């Protein structure tokens, strides 16, 4: 194996975190901001990109960082390296309610494709790259643009899904239609495309957008029930305008209470 062999344990239900067990000289690479806690003896280093091209000079580092810039992620990632003589542990937390999904990339023939913000952490040696869409419709209307992330290597990687996770194993030619934001990731054998929903009533009054994704097997697909964009949209829609505190939301006295407080905004 070219990737480090790591052990892990996932804790929690709604707000999970993954604890990575590192033997001496083993390392794990993670997204900036996902770190939770670690044992003494682990050294933390910030690097360009995913660390896969660190031995290829300045151009290799710049290329690795440039790939992350195209996916909208930070130029930097963090490596946690066990420099102690014994086993040490480091933990990474999920960014919002959902499930952490462990992926053994050997079971996906060394490659897994996921949405841009799904990656959490991986064994050192796993490459976090970009996957360009070959389909114009997918790039324009797919919700993820022309670019998705691809995880390549022979080690363990961890991705995060919002809400409840569904794992679907599609047979050859089997099609699954999914809201574009609900896709977490899929194996490289799955064909991914975008279709127009169609129908005037569906388009104008459906409230589900104009397009959905079609996933054609064979392969494995992970679906999330709560995309972060949907969660953020609901929070923003429920927030009172102007940053004020809203009282009695959902009741007829809500607006009256604001008026009595001298707040004329309903």
Structure, described:
There is one protein chain. With 266 residues, the protein is of the alpha+beta class. It has one domain: Mitochondrial biogenesis AIM24 (Double-stranded beta-helix), CATH 3.60.160. 17% of the residues lie in helices and 41% in strands. The strands form 4 sheets. It has a 6-stranded antiparallel β-sheet with strand order 5-6-3-10-13-8. Strand 1 (7-11) and strand 2 (17-22) form a beta hairpin. It is globular, with a radius of gyration of 22 Å. The protein starts with 6 loop residues before the first strand and ends in a 6-residue tail after the last helix. The model is unreliable at 202-207, 247-253 and 259-266 (pLDDT under 50). It comes from Flavobacterium rivuli WB 3.3-2 = DSM 21788. This is TIGR00266 family protein.
């Amino acid at each position: 194996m070219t990737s480090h062999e790591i052990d892990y344990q996932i804790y929690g239900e709604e707000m999970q975190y993954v604890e990575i067990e590192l033997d001496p000289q083993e390392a794990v690479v993670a997204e900036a901001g996902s770190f939770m806690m670690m044992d003494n003896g682990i050294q933390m280093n910030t690097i360009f990109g995913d660390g896969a091209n660190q031995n290829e000079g300045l151009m290799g580092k710049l290329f690795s960082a440039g790939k992350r810039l195209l996916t909208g992620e930070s130029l930097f990632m963090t490596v946690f390296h066990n420099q102690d003589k014994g086993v040490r542990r480091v933990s990474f937390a999920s960014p919002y309610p959902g499930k952490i999904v462990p992926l053994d990339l050997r079971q996906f023939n060394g490659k897994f494709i996921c949405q841009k913000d799904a990656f959490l952490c991986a064994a050192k040696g796993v490459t976090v790259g970009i996957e360009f869409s070959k389909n114009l419709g997918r790039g324009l209307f797919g919700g993820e643009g022309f670019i998705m992330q691809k995880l390549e290597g022979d080690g363990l990687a961890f991705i995060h899904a919002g809400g409840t996770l569904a794992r679907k194993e599609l047979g050859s030619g089997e099609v699954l239609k999914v809201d574009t934001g609900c896709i977490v990731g899929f194996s490289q054998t799955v064909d991914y495309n975008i279709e127009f929903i169609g129908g005037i009533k569906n388009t104008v009054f459906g409230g589900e957008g104009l397009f959905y994704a079609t996933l054609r097997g064979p392969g494995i697909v992970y679906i999330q029930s709560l995309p972060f964009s949907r969660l953020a949209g609901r929070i923003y829609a429920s927030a009172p305008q102007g940053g004020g505190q809203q009282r009695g939301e959902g009741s007829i006295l809500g607006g009256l209470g604001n008026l009595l407080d001298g707040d004329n905004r309903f």
